[in-house]
Fold this sequence. Notes:
Largest sheet: 20 strands, antiparallel
Radius of gyration: 21 Å
Number of strands: 20
Number of helices: 12
Structural class: alpha+beta
Amino acid sequence: MLRTIHKHSLGQPEIFKQQLLVWSQQFDDVTWLDSNDYKDQYSSFDAVLAVDAFTSIKTGYLDAFQRLEEYQSSTKDWIFGYLTYDLKNTLEDLKSENFDGLEFPDLYFFQPKKLFLIKGNAVEIQYLKLVNDEIEGDLKEILNASLNGLERSQRQTDDIKIKLRIHKDDYFEKVNNMLAHIQRGDIYEANFCQEFYAENSTISPLETFSKLNAISRPPFAAFFKTEDKYLLSASPERYIKKVGHKIISQPIKGTAKRSANKEEDKQLAKDLANDPKERSENIMIVDLVRNDLSKTAIKGSVKVEELCKVYSFMQVHQMISTITSKISKSTNPLDVLRTTFPMGSMTGAPKISAMKIIEELEETKRGLYSGAVGYFTPEGDFDFNVIIRSILYNETKKYVSYSVGSAITSKSNPLKEYEECLVKAKAMREVLES
């Protein structure tokens, strides 16, 4: 056993979570995953914190999955990290040549010295043996952490001026171009994304994340830091999870805004559930996910557990489907990621054609946006979100970015797609522009 385990009961889990996050900021490598008390049948923890890299892997896309497989199997411990969208280039004959203002490495994972797993009113603390004498002192420090740290971390000295990488008229032209591809039969659907960005801007990552999380409270929130690069994510979407021999994928396709009026809000959710365009979008991606999962599944084990179910979050209503499969004992966990990445909800169908057209029409290298952040357990189980509704920040370059997208199908209206993007961008914009 590599780790010393210490269990501690919590009087106020919410306060402890905030203290833990403030305490974590002293480290160069931080992964914070928070379900915001969202309970579904596949939840493992309420929140997880991993800090302080003992070992790590950082690589470009070339042979990235092979290198991650070697790292994961030799470490045989908890590892935390991310997969950028551009790992597609190692899986298929594809390229990423669009502008990149953020410069995140294509893949990064680390083995944390210190790990905290929160569930209910308890935290399980797991420290590598070489630092296990620090558990008591750290716990004391965490419980004494002043939440003023959150306030003190406000260093937003300048007004953030958000710019658009694609202006409205260009957006319409690009969507019409995509519709022409659909009419020609090149694709059925593609997720088309646009970037909003700010240059020469300084933000407080912790403060920004806390605000974003507070107004969205999503089930797959993440704060990720490696050196000078930050991911502040309010993602509502799970990409893929492995528990034992079971694989779970939960793509989101279909979005509607919320209303403060209870009756109107109920109607908006009902309209989303019955919207033929949104349903067909979702069903196309379900078919794609079923096909992806079948590549590693035991024959006949791929099942759609839930189709086009509407869930309500603080900012939006979302249509979510749940697809599961079973894999054999001999299947390597990395093979499941290899054969399903990038997730269908962020690409389109057929997947390779959609990714080629996306690269041609988008203006920004996606990088971490529409990739995934998550972890592997020592047993080879894993859980990853989809990086959407997220702010990305390169502190050295003072570059802040968030991207949003929508699925273009033959039934798409360019103006409605543009408006859907603005609905999705609302929380990030509000947080950055205060």
